[in-house]
Write a structure and sequence with these properties.
Layout (H helix, E strand, L loop, with lengths): L1 H9 L13 H11 L1 H7 L9 H11 L2 H6 L3 H14 L1
Length: 88
């Protein structure tokens, strides 16, 4: 996976997309990964297990206080996805 490779190449500098610096790129990409548990529960989608750097990045971003404050819980995503699926 391209993202995992990019994160691996910057790992010595830090866990974020730009290395040690948390950036707008991390902010823009993280919400997609915040939804993974719900996507796994409601669909056949699976994130490849060998994307260790992506999982580490997601954990690092998700641990930031501002991200914790703004994050939606899994049940919020599940409720909304179920309403989308019911309308389809």
């Amino acid at each position: 996976m391209v993202l995992d490779h990019a994160l691996q190449s910057r790992r010595a500098q830090g866990f974020f997309l730009l290395g040690a610096q948390f950036s707008l790129a991390d902010i823009a990409l993280y919400p997609w990964f915040e939804q993974l548990a719900t996507l796994h529960k409601l669909s056949a989608f699976r994130m490849p297990a060998d994307c260790h750097h992506v999982y580490d990045w997601s954990d690092a971003v998700g641990a930031r206080p501002a991200v914790k404050h703004c994050a939606q819980p899994d049940d919020w995503y599940e409720e909304n996805y179920r309403s989308y699926l019911a309308a389809a």
